Amino acid sequence: MSHHHSNPTLTFELPDGSVSTVTVERLLNAGYAGKNQEEVRAHIDELAELGVPAPATTPTLYPVSPYLAQQTDRVSVQHGRTSGEAEWALVIDDEGRELLTAACDHTDRQLETHGVAWSKNASPDVLARKAWLYSDVADRMDRVILSGWVGAERTPIQSAPAAALLEPSYWLDVLEQRGERRPGTVLISGTITMDGSVDQFADRWGVALEDPELGRIELEYDVVRMADPIH
């Protein structure tokens, strides 16, 4: 085996019971990816008030370290100001099939004020263990519901049709132009509005994609504080 196979290998169960494998060669996180770009600009202004630097262009696309693509039930963090983001992930598996699954982009909100690209590299992108063929749901993304919840009580914090975000087809064109529409690519969608009345700094996060025909894909993980550093 060549040396680059230290890259993470993810496996997904498809609706027919078969298993898809992807060796992650490149992981891309979209940002500010709402379909209504006027709303996106309003969101950027809100973030600016919290000290998050505004991007030069929207939507954005941040390449992040492939090892951050993980299927895990626990995420270790350095402090109490980190939280997830409900997203979908477009995965091109080792056979070149384009899959859709649920993902949660765990983000360091403290680091985010210094630079979004940094914060994207500080915590994993957690992916679900099941996936659909994108072609099976491509024509009904407005009926696929993306949702996020927090805590043991599963308090809802995010929910919207997947079509509130730029669609996978938009990003497939971008990947095509970049020469990255090929096996080993994982692209995460950017997120939907968060309910500000719910505490996002929770010790558990979950995300689901729900389709009227194919059912539900979900993931959930504990957020675990590490010991304080010795310094």
UniProtKB/TrEMBL annotation:
<protein>
    <submittedName>
        <fullName>DUF2848 domain-containing protein</fullName>
    </submittedName>
</protein>
<dbReference type="Pfam" id="PF11010">
    <property type="entry name" value="DUF2848"/>
</dbReference>
<dbReference type="InterPro" id="IPR021269">
    <property type="entry name" value="DUF2848"/>
</dbReference>
